[in-house]
Amino acid sequence: MDIELIISRLKKLYPPGKFHSPDPFRVLIATVLSQRTRDEVTDRASEKLFSKYGSATALAHADVADIEELIQEVGFYRMKAPRVKEIARIISNDFKGKVPDDMETLLSLPGVGRKTANCVLVYGFGRDAIAVDTHVHRISNRLGIVSTKTPDETELKLREVLPKKHWRSINELLVRFGRETCRPLSPRCGACSLAELCPNRGQK
Q1: Residue 109, C-beta contacts closer than 8 angstroms, at least 6 positions apart
Q2: Contact 46/28 with Cβ under 8 angstroms?
Q3: Helix (H, G, I), strand (E, B) or coil at 204
Q4: Hey, where are the domains in the chain?
Q5: Residue 26 in 3-state DSSP?
Q6: CATH class of residue range 3-16+131-197
Q7: pLDDT tens-place string over residues 50-91
Q8: pLDDT digits (tens, 9 = 90+) for 98-151
Q9: Tell me, which fold does domain 24-124 have in CATH?
Q10: What would the DSSP string read from start to end of 69-83?
C-alpha cells in the first residue's frame, strides 16, 4: 500500500486546515458532543451551544436543562449535558480557563478518551497526533493501510506505518473522504480517486 500516494491524492482533493480552530475549548466540547452522533448534527448542536456559552466559565455556570435543550439533537444528550458542564467547571476552576495541552491531563477529564484528546491536540493546538474516529478506523482498514479491530489499535498501528509529517492531517483527510466518497454503506467506488489502490473496492 503506497501511503504517500494516498495522502498526496487526498490532499489535492481536501487541502487540510478546514477543521482547525483557534479555541481548543470548542474543539474539546464539540468532540465530546460528536460521540455516536453524525457530523452534521454535531456541527449544528455545537453552534447553538457556543452561541450562548462561549467560554469554559460561562458553560460551567450554565443550567444543565438549558444545555440539554441546546444539544438535544446529539445522541445521548442527557448524559452529555452534565458531562460538558463538568468539563467546563474543571477547566475553569482547575486550569484557569485554559484547556490542557497534554494527553495525560486531557484523559483525566470526564468522558474524554484518546480520540477526543488527540482531536484537541491536533485541531486545537496543532500538535503531531493521530485522531482516530470511525472514519479513520474504517477507511484505514478498507484501504489496507492497517488491519485492526478497534480505533485504539488503529491509532497505534498508524503511528508505526504513517510518516509523522502526515499525523496531523490524516484525520481531516479521511473524515472528509469518508463523508463524501468512502461512506460506511454504499461507498462511491466509481467516483473514488483511490479505487485502483483499494483492495476492497466494490465491497459494501
Answers
A1: 28, 87, 90, 91, 100
A2: no
A3: coil
A4: 3-16+131-197, 24-124
A5: helix
A6: mainly alpha
A7: 999 999 999 999 999 999 999 999 999 999 999 999 999 999
A8: 999 999 999 999 999 999 999 999 999 999 999 999 999 999 999 999 999 999
A9: Endonuclease III; domain 1 (1.10.340)
A10: HHHTTSTTHHHHHHH
